[in-house]
Design goal:
The protein has helices spanning 28-31, 42-52, 58-72; strands at residues 22-26, 84-88. The protein is α+β, with helices and mostly antiparallel strands. The protein is flat, with a radius of gyration of 15 Å. The mean pLDDT is 86.
């Protein structure tokens, strides 16, 4: 949770990003978006989009997630905000593996 409420304590972690690694921040409006049939988008769909877009720019990943969510919801109005921030460390070769962590 970033900037949700003042005065809350959170655990601090560090991670080293290798060239080509991405860091994806998303609000629950992404994973909790609903299809017209009432199905939830969910983390597995998000992870699939990330795996389908390895080696692409941060902007391409962001666009792919947004396209996927909007297609899934059939462009219906969302019940919650949809916030994304994608960071990608440059310098990777196209053959570099991409790690996906949850």
């Amino acid at each position: 949770a970033l900037g949700v409420m003042a005065g809350l304590d959170f655990e601090e972690h560090t991670a080293e990003l290798a060239p080509g690694d991405r860091l994806v921040f998303y609000s629950d409006g992404v994973t909790e978006a609903f299809s017209p049939q009432g199905d939830m988008y969910g983390v597995p769909r998000l992870l699939q989009v990330l795996q389908n877009n390895t080696g692409t720019s941060a902007q391409s990943v962001l666009d792919a997630i947004l396209d996927s969510v909007h297609t899934f919801t059939d462009n219906a109005p969302l019940a919650d905000d949809l916030t994304l921030l994608i960071l990608r460390r440059n310098g990777a070769s196209s053959d570099a593996p991409t790690r996906v962590h949850r």
